Amino acid sequence: MEMTGSRTLPMSQQIVWDALNNAEILKACIPGCEKFELTEPNTYAVGTAIKIGPVAARFNGRVLLTDIVAPTSYQLQFDAQGGVAGFGKGSSRVELKPAGSGCELHYTVNSTVGGKIAQLGQRLIDGAAKSLAEDFFRRFEEELQARHPAAATASPAPAAAPTAASGGLPGWAWAAIAAAVVLGLVLLT
Prior knowledge:
189 residues, 10 strands
């Protein structure tokens, strides 16, 4: 599965970069996240509970940050196991660019999944991916504004909707596990 998206945030690039590299903030913003802990430099142990349609499971995995160009971009490599529900692995790229008085966050997620969760219908998966991405970004923006109220200079522009291609687990779900991130994502996820 491939998913891309972007979001304009009313914070400086440096503030957003710092938040995207803060395990406490990511744990609070990732839907269902139960654990997001630094285990060694640029490596995190993650645990999350996800429910997509009739499939609910706890996933445990690892996230590795590579190709770090502070405060602009990084690459995430991730893998997670969810028992009989399945597994996921893949990568995500997160980029920040100045945009007016804030910054724009862009993410791309590529993931592969197996097991029960990979058997869900594409419409259900796409809907869950969009919902998880929006939930992450809403929480992330609220957390940024709570921590930096003076830096919130303007309301963000509407987010570009995440787009998905091919089947599998919602890309943003894995990006969320991997911090995206968005993304997430947006990045991871």
